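Saturday, quiet lab. Running sequence design on the structure tokens for the scaffold JK sent over.
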């Protein structure tokens, strides 16, 4: 397994790797996170070296085996790989969902995409593209996950998962660049066509909300306003002190944009997968300030499934005050995935 332990410090370095017999040099800036996420009991932080030579942070929590724990052909618990969205990193899954799902018998891996969390930062204006992020996820799975996992993506991370799905079984590749999945979960995901439809609907139907969401996300207003951060990501019942902690983690763990949105939207929608037998759960939040009901419906129809909308939770379903509601829906779906 290609996992390497390490500590991120502030430094610039160069690495060389070979691509089709040509030496390629990559310059990168190691992230120095001033507001670190403190791991919970049973969690570990590793750094997976990508083919580029850059290191990707992974928070790992293996399944907790008890006396009554049974794992056989009738009780299979697939590993879970989590992909965050913009302004987040691996820590957003580690707070509640990694302990929950590991307790339920699943090995859990939460990734921090390049330029996010404590992952290395490429020398570019943005962290990557839909394609490079998906390949990084695929490389981690290929080298470190022994059996087909369930891939879970939140917000723009959901779009990365959708691109991954579109490449499964693609015979253009001589090697298995996108390892097999046993299922996928899209949590408050940006729809296959991107976020432009969401923005235009807000402009015409909710102009005030459109201004708020644009200021909050595009202008990073959530970083300086507790109330706006809460309205954007969380339920209004969440205590301000908790919102402030997450606000600090978001600010420090996303120092460069996840995508160039103009280039991203030009590459969308993601390719369709009409003959795919992969089981997909499309999960939305009733109080989502970012992804509206139409966006949720678009994603569900794209995969030919019915969306599940969780009541009384906001966009950051895995961090919200009622985080267990979405987790329980996913756990129920997982139990029916194999059995």
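Result came back. Writing it out in full:
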């Amino acid at each position: 397994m290609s996992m390497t332990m390490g500590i991120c410090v502030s430094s610039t370095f160069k690495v060389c790797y070979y691509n089709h017999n040509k030496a390629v040099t990559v310059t990168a800036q190691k992230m120095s996170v001033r507001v670190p996420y403190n791991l919970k009991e049973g969690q570990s932080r590793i750094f997976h070296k990508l083919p580029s030579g850059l290191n990707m942070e992974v928070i790992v929590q293996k399944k907790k085996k008890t006396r009554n724990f049974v794992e056989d052909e009738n009780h299979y618990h697939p590993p879970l790989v989590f992909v965050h969205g913009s302004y987040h990193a691996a820590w957003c899954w580690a707070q509640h969902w990694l302990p929950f799902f590991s307790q339920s018998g699943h090995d859990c891996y939460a990734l921090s995409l390049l330029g996010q969390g404590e992952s290395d930062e490429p020398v570019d204006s943005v962290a990557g593209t839909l394609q490079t992020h998906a390949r990084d996820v695929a490389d981690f799975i290929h080298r470190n996950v022994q059996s087909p996992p369930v891939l879970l993506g939140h917000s723009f991370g959901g779009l990365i998962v959708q691109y991954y799905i579109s490449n499964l079984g693609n015979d253009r590749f001589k090697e298995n660049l996108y390892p097999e999945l046993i299922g996928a979960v899209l949590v408050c995901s940006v729809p296959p066509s991107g976020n432009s439809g969401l923005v235009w609907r807000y402009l015409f139907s909710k102009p005030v909300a459109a201004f708020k969401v644009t200021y909050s996300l595009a202008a990073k207003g959530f970083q300086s306003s507790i109330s706006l951060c809460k309205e954007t990501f969380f339920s209004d019942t969440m205590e301000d002190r908790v919102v402030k902690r997450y606000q600090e983690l978001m600010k420090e763990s996303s120092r460069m944009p996840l995508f160039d949105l103009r280039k991203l939207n030009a590459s969308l929608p993601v390719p369709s997968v009409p003959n795919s037998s992969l089981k997909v759960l499309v999960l939305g939040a009733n109080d989502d300030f970012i992804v509206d009901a139409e966006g949720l419906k678009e994603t569900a129809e794209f995969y030919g499934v019915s969306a599940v909308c969780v009541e009384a939770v906001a966009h950051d379903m895995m961090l919200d005050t009622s985080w267990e509601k979405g987790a329980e829906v996913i756990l129920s779906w997982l139990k029916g995935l194999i059995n």
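Notes for JK: Residues 323-338 form the longest helix (16 residues). The longest strand covers residues 12-19. Ask whether to fix the surface positions before the next round.
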